[in-house]
Every structure is written in structure tokens, then in C-alpha cells.
Amino acid sequence: MNARRMSVSKVPAVTLWFWIIKILCTTVGESFADWVNVTLGVGLHTTTMIFSVLLAAVLAWQLPLSRYVPGVYWLPVVVFSVTGTLYTDILTDDLRVPLAVSTAVFAVALAVVFGFWYARERTLSIHSIATLPRELFYWLAVLVTFALGTAAGDWTLQLTGWGPGVSVLLPAAAIVAILAGWRMGANPILSFWLAYILTRPLGANLGDWLASGRSNHGLGLGTAATSAIFLGAILATVAYLAVSHADVIEGHSGTPATAVATTPVRERIMLGYYGIVAVAIAAMLVWSAGRLHSVVEPEDEAGQALTSSTVAPGQLTAHFPPDHIAKYRAIVQATLVKVQAGDQSGAKTTITGLETAWDNDEAQLRPLDRTAWGVLDHQIDDALRAVRARNHDPAKATAALNALLTALH
């Protein structure tokens, strides 16, 4: 058994098929998690617990195997995609950790994983995953890359306010730039892991674009249909690979058959190229964020502060999907009932659902009407402060919630 594990890789060769199925897994993982969490109403915590248990189960199936088996290998990738996303959502939605902080924390965590991996094994190449320790390091790195990709992707959307369709372009362009760098002699291991991280926001944004309604500039397929389509594509691709063995690494050479020739000098030059790409992306994000904040100031044409009391009923919500507005109103009304019943703890818990839903929908709603979004955002903040105030005043909380209900008319 040990000799066989040392001679046969436990992961597939990095071919075009690898990247296709990786993106498919990421997309179906994102849409399926949304379907379970939101559509079925299971909830974030319960969904996280379910997938954490499932994660342990699929790893218990994968780890004892002595070779790469397509159907068994790709199942953990799907589950890791969902689980990494859910862990990031808990940090953001429940613990209120800023996405910038989450991104930095996961980036440091990934660096630590790679540091211990290299210190023990002297390589980070996935073409040499032929021992149990290396495979454990590999799966831990995969989990962190999914969490990092989720945090970085969500942070990008928060900074820019891009819609589902436009948001696909940035990670796609970055992956193309990495592919070009690899072809020109960049370090293959660095190139692989950079691309691996970026496939997470690419797949998630693609899933959001397909599932989002047409009013949000999506294709309106819904999370269930999107999950079904991509799951079918995954099953078909895995079946093909199981028969063709097109992605099997036969030996333990540590070097893929399709490796691009490189030298230390060329790798250093291409490292500078990756630095330039990173600076260009950062500059574009800073510009987009500045442009976004410059156009969402809630003011009217005369430069006066625009509030829900200065606009006609329905004006603020005219460009937003009615089902979203109905969802927000239902949460506000439920919070108001608890405030009037003297249940501040219950009111605080209930209105957190509004905060979470509003933050999750920001990337979809803000591009539809930036000014109205800004006004409603201020109104929601007022209601949150009133309900959560340490010196709770039921009258002020009631007034803030009623004002918000009016704004959401």
C-alpha cells in the first residue's frame, strides 16, 4: 500500500479538463449552498453544520484510496467549495468581520499552510501528492483557497458595486493574465495556486449571473436550475474522465507532461510581471470604489440631502425587484411586532436578518439605482441603531422601523 501511494498521484493532472471541472464545481457549490440556505430556508448555521459533516464524510472516503479516482476526488472539491463559502459567510454575516479583514486573515492562513507544507515536504507541487501528509496539506490548502477566494470576491463586489455579469470579467481577465505568465515561464506552482484561488470568485459570480433575475441583469435561471445544469455537466465530465483517463498522472515524477520550460531568471522576471498585474487590478478597484462612492451620495439635483421623506411613495424602490422589497418589509414588520411586545432581544435577532439580507443583495441592488440604494442604506442603519441601542427606547425604535417601512413602500 505505501509503495503504491508513493508511485501514484492522488490528484488529477492539470489539464484543460481540470480547470473546466473546477469552475463547474465552484459554480454548483455556490448556487447549491444558496438554494439550501435561502430557498429551502435551512439557515446559515444549519447549512454550515450539514456541509461540515458531509466534508468529513467525503474526506474519509477519499483519503484511504491509493490512487486518483475522478468521481471520489471531485466530490470533496464541491463540498470544500460550499464549506469554505459558508465559513466566510459566518465571519461576515454573524461575527461582522469586515471583508477586508477576512481576506487578509485567509491570505495569511494560506501562507502559513504553504509554509508548513514546504518545510516538511520541500515541495508545493500538486503533481507529487502521493503520501498521506502531502494529501492532508493539499486539502487544507484547498479549503483555505475557497474561503480566501470567497472573501476577496465579495470584498471586490462591495468595493465596486458591480452587477453579476460584470463581476465575472475581473477574475476571468486575471486568470488569462496568469495563463499568459505561465506560458512565458512564470513559476508553475505559484501560477497554479493563483489561478486556483481566482476560479472561486469566477465560478461564484458566474453562478450568481445565471441564477439572478433579469431585473438584476442576470439570466433568471434560479439557484435550483443553475445547480441542476452544472451538476449534470460535472457528472458528464467526470464520467468521461473515468473512462478516458485523460487526467491521470501515471508516475511520481513530480513534473507534469505539459510543463513549460523555465529558468530561475525567467521566473524572477515573471514574478515582476505578476506584481504589475496585481498593482493594475488594485488600481482599478480603487478607481471603481472611488467612482462608486462619488455617485451614490444621497442628494437631489439641488445638492440637498435626499431622504425617504423627500421622495414620493414607491420612488425609492421603483427599480428594485419586488420580491426583495417584500422580503425586507416582512423582516421589518416582524421586528416591529417584537419591539411593541417589549422583546428587545428578539427584535435584535430578527433585524439582524434584514442586515444580512441587505448586505448579501448589495452587489445586485446598488447598480440598479445607486442613489435610492444609498438612501435606503442610511434608513436601515438608523433602524439598526435604534433597535440595538444600549439604552433602548421603544418609541424611537418604533419610529425608526415605521420610517423604514414607509421607505420600503
Q: Can you give a write-up of this model?
A:
- The protein has helices at residues 2-7, 16-39, 44-62, 70-94, 99-121, 132-160, 164-167, 169-183, 188-211, 222-244, 264-295, 322-340, 344-365, 370-388, 394-407.
- It has 15 helices and no strands.
- It has 2 domains: 2-246 and 260-292, no CATH class; 308-407.
- It is mostly helical and 409 residues long.
- The longest helix has 32 residues, at 264-295.
Question: Which key terms come to mind for this protein?
Answer:
409 residues, mainly alpha, 2 domains, 0% strand, elongated, disordered N terminus
Instruction: Give the SSE order as H and E letters.
Output: HHHHHHHHHHHHHHH
Count of discrete alpha- or pi-helical segments spanning 4 or more residues: 15
User: How is the main sheet built?
Assistant: none
Principal-axes geometry comes out as: elongated
Termini distance?
67 Å
Average pLDDT level = 82
Q: Which spans have pLDDT < 50 for at least 5 consecutive residues?
A: 1-7, 251-255, 294-310
**Alpha-beta classification:** mainly alpha
Percentage of β-strand residues: under 5%
Number of separate strands: 0
Which radius of gyration do the C-alpha atoms yield? 24 Å
Helical content (DSSP H or I, runs of 4+): over 70%
